[in-house]
Specification:
Layout: E1 2-10, E2 16-25, E3 30-35, H1 41-45, E4 56-61, E5 64-65, H2 71-75, E6 78-81, H3 94-104, H4 109-122, H5 138-150, E7 156-160, H6 168-183, E8 187-191, H7 195-201, E9 204-209, E10 212-218, H8 219-222, H9 226-231, H10 238-245, H11 258-271
Parallel strand pairs: 3-8, 3-9, 6-7, 7-8
Antiparallel strand pairs: 1-2, 1-4, 4-5, 9-10
Helix pairs in contact: 3-4, 3-5, 4-5
């Protein structure tokens, strides 16, 4: 469980990025953190594995204060995938990149090879095993960064803007993969501006603006709150916009994904 208690964070430049943030993320939850640029989203999640330490307040991971543990110690349970994969990758080949953390955690020989192969196959990277990650596209490098984290099987997976650089097919694979991880009991936290991706995933949504949490709830509740979305500079999901326009015809306005929309429309047709 991740507990954030009255956390403030001020950068050395003097910018106050987080202002009295409190939230609890329970084991096995799927969370999407959304908001405008500069809202404090990335600053917040960097507290989850100790990359940043709060100026005031505390962050607890399974009851352990992150200020009392190193990033290396916290990383065993909290895997962090950076927005820019170039901030994370450094090895000569994709295989070596995935192997690096595993070796640090003590895996050897058969188990090491097994986890590398599993991660590469999972993210569709097997053909790039001996390729330099810096020869790959931005989207492929993101998948390498994700594979290097998932290989050691952390209990919490934190991803910063994972859909950037991914085409529709890769986004759908990512969505299915995240749901699979969550079904297996993993805690998944995603920072993203991609409202359509979040609508399709239907997680709990935390909406941020100017260093504060302005809304926290189920996706359907948050992504149909026009005022809060406007405050956070997030647009409505496209299907929600359509259903708001059709509200005068007796259709609900709080629809966020195509699957639900299809069921509602088919029921309406059957009533006719």
């Amino acid at each position: 469980m991740i507990e954030v208690k009255n956390v403030y964070y001020t950068y050395p430049s003097g910018v106050e990025a987080l202002k009295d943030i409190s939230l609890t993320i329970r084991d096995g939850e799927f969370i999407a953190i959304m908001g405008q640029n500069g809202a404090g989203k990335t600053t917040l999640i960097k507290h989850f594995n100790g990359l940043l330490k709060s100026t005031k307040g505390e962050v607890l991971i399974d009851g352990i204060n992150t200020k009392k543990k190193s990033v290396a110690e916290l990383a065993r349970n909290v895997g962090f995938v950076f927005q820019n994969p170039d901030s994370q990758l450094f090895s000569e080949t994709v295989e070596e990149e995935v192997a690096f953390a595993l070796k640090n955690f003590g895996l050897k020989d058969t188990m090491l090879k097994k986890r590398i192969t599993w991660a590469l196959e999972l993210l569709g990277l097997t053909e790039y095993r001996k390729t330099s990650p810096f020869m790959l596209s931005g989207g492929e490098r993101k998948r390498v960064a994700l594979a290097s984290v998932l290989a050691w099987n952390p209990e919490v997976v934190v991803m910063d803007e994972p859909t950037i650089g991914q085409d529709h097919q890769q986004k759908e694979k990512l969505r299915q993969f995240i749901i699979q991880l969550n079904t297996q009991g993993k805690t998944v936290v995603v920072v993203t501006h991609d409202v359509e991706f979040v609508a399709d995933c239907a997680p709990r949504v935390i909406l941020m603006a100017e260093g504060k949490i302005i809304k926290d709830g189920l996706g359907k509740e948050v992504l149909t709150d026009v005022d809060c979305l406007d405050q956070a500079s997030i647009v409505l999901p496209q299907i929600t916009e359509v259903f708001i326009e059709l509200e005068d015809f007796g259709l609900p306005r709080n629809v966020i994904d195509l699957y639900e929309a299809k069921e509602i429309l088919l029921r309406r047709l059957d009533e006719k």
